[in-house]
Every structure is written in C-alpha cells, then in structure tokens.
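Summary for the steering committee. One of the milestones for this cycle was to obtain a three-dimensional model of the protein with adenosine monophosphate bound, which we needed before selecting residues for the alanine scan. The sequence and ligand used are listed below.
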Amino acid sequence: MKIILLGAPGAGKGTVAKMLTKLDGSVQISTGDILRGAVQAGTELGKEADGYMKRGDLVPDSLIMGIMEKRLQESDCQQGFLLDGFPRTIPQAEELNQLLAKLGIKLDMVVNIDVPRDVIFDRLCTRRTCENAKCQAIYNVKSNPPQQEGICDKCGSPVVQRADETQEAIAHRLDTYNQKTAPLAGFYEKEGLLKTITGTSSDLVVSGIQKALGK
Ligand code: AMP
C-alpha cells in the first residue's frame, strides 16, 4: 500500500504505520525518526535540524524534500510505503505530488487520524522513546511502560523523554500542526484521496484503513 498518514503529533501515526507494515511488507518512512537518527549521528543534516526540532518548529522544507527524494527511490519502497510525519506543509505536499509523478507512483489513500487535543496532549506528556536511533521504540509511562523502568524491552537502551516533549515544546508543536499541517486535509480532500478516521484505538484505525482499501 502507498499511504500518507496525517494527524497531529501523538495521534498514533507511528503505531498505525508499524501495524500496517506487518500486513503487506510496506515500509514505514518517518521523517521524525530519520531526523532524530541524523541528530544522534551528528551528521550535517542533524546539525541543521537539531535547533528547529528542540524548539518544536518544523525543519525547512528543502531539507525534508532532499531526504524524501532519495528515500522514495530506495528499493524497499517498491512494495509500498507509509509516510509518517511527511508531508507537513502545503509546499511539501505540492513538491511530493511532483516527485511522485516523476517516479510514476500513485498514492492509494491519505488517512487523517483525528484524535481530541486533550488526549494528544496527555499522550505526548507521558510518552517515552528508546534513545537508540536504530530502535526508537515508543512507550508510555501510564499505558505501556517498559518492563524494567527506563530500559527498552527491545534493545536494552535507555528510554527517555524526547527534548521536544516538554509541556512547552508540545504546546508549540500542536500550534505548528494546526497552522501548517492541518490544512493538508483540505488539500488531499480536493484530490479525492482523503479518508478521515476519528478514534483513539490504533486497532480500529488499522481496520478502517483495510476496509477503505477493500482488503
Ligand atoms: P515527529 O517525530 O514526526 O513528531 O517529528 C519530530 C520533529 O521533526 C518535528 O517537530 C519537526 O521538527 C521535525 N520534522 C519531522 N518531519 C518533518 C517534516 N515533514 N517537515 C518539517 N519538519 C519535520
């Protein structure tokens, strides 16, 4: 499947993407994960992105488009992909349309995961992430803590609160989402690709997507 997952930070895009990859071998492409990996590795990209990310601002469109142009041409994308956290602005969506046309790729659907703001805020404040860039497993101190406090079940690395998941940075990220990313729902509705699914259960979101795809 070739799907864009839209939704505020904390709406469950990453969880849903991981569940969908198990269905047909499509790959999850998370620009947030790619950028955090680059920051940790100290690459040029990471150095450029770091300040924006810590403040909860979006990194410049040109940096993101460079990443995505390369990533979408890697061989594992042929089976399908789930875009998680990209596009995040109208210019990114417009450039993505051009890129997909150039590569001869047609999207199946754009899914907008719609979750109330208070649920999102609570989820992000209690979210914890494995700091190993290759793992980045997600936990929640209330609903899904690691078996051993502060240690990732999957790889044994420390589980930490992201620098952009302080209350202040979260509030800023949600405002940025409302201003810059929420308008993408209208953009893809006009293209006839949008499917909005309201709900906090990732299982229900996944079954809604399967139903909409006729699977
Ligand atoms: P995420 O893990 O998707 O919440 O992304 C974490 C941070 O990475 C965001 O707050 C942005 O600073 C940056 N980021 C991720 N994806 C994008 C994107 N498509 N455009 C601009 N910035 C992005």
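Key point for the committee: Residues 9, 31-32, 35, 52-53, 56-59, 64, 85-88, 92, 164, 173 surround adenosine monophosphate (CB under 6 Å).
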